[in-house]
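Issue 218. Parser rejects a valid record. Input:
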Amino acid sequence: MDQVKLLIIDDQADDEKAKLTAWSGRVDFRVRYPWDVSENDLIFANVVVVDYRLDQIWEARDALEQIALKPRNGLALASVLRSQERIMDGGPTAFLLRSAHLGDLSPEFPPESRLHVIAHQNNLEWVLSKNGDVNEQMNQIICLAKAVDALPDNWPHVDAAGMKELLRGWLNVPANERWSDLAWQDIEECHPPLHELSTSKQGLRLIRWILHRILPYPCFLMTINRLAVRLKVTEESLKAAVEDGLAECFAAGAYMGALNQFDRRARWWGRGIESILWDLTDGQSFNVSRTLEVLNSICGQKLVPLVMSQPILCLDKEYQFRDQPCELLEAVQVQPDDWPAYAEQAWASIADVHADERLRAIVVSSDRERIQEEEA
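Output the parser choked on:
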């Protein structure tokens, strides 16, 4: 694609413009005060970033008596602009909200750990914290813009086979691997929004599906913390091993599809990893000792086994995965409100459940008796 065409809307536009000068070679940007946004600006942009708090005096807005014409914050303004963008010619436009006060939209949890939930609940592709690293956020914007640009112009909405191939291409599902069809089955179980798409603008549903419902949750893509638990090794040692030989070993299973660099976390197709391990161990991939022996021979004895029989990843009180896994017998199943039914089961340690009322409230009914037994 050509340069990302970015429209930033902020009631401190001059300050924002100065921050972006270092990116002028990679991003074609316009910075506007809310009262200066034109139809041409919306047509220009493929990514629009709107500031949440619009506290500066907006004379034309503030003088009106009709409250329906007075968007008080960036969330309201983004909705107005999106309704205008939908009737304009051109491709899809991603909308992001940015603020130093995202806690206003996530009162119970630290917003930095719930960005996908905030975006999902507010009809946005993503949200950004003004307190975050500018370079990292610009990389996310560029990655998002490329994914939007890669959406097809025409959707074969009455052709199920055509829609399947379209999504397989967009996700870059390896075509010649024997596990490709199994990977596609896993994708289908995660309910991609395929059957209602008919225009390129509706393709943003796919963007949201990846950002809001796939990348944050354990499903068909495997992150390094899940891979460490699968191999029963420490995450720190696995990171070192990946840098010293295992990255190449696992390359055939690497996820290289849309938004693969959005959060700069390595991901692999779960089916791809299992197939690679099966081949490396001559069919003994669930023999932990054999698997570690083979992998350590590749990475120079970097992998350190976990001293656990059944390690699992657990959520903390903020519904984020803990840095260290815990033993299965020391955990209970939980069901956060936003947890997809197709994702792997969520767990929390019994110790954390006892210490936090919110975690206690989401323990599944079949495990509540275990909590009561611990208290008795």
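Fixed in the parser; the record now loads. The radius of gyration is 23 Å.
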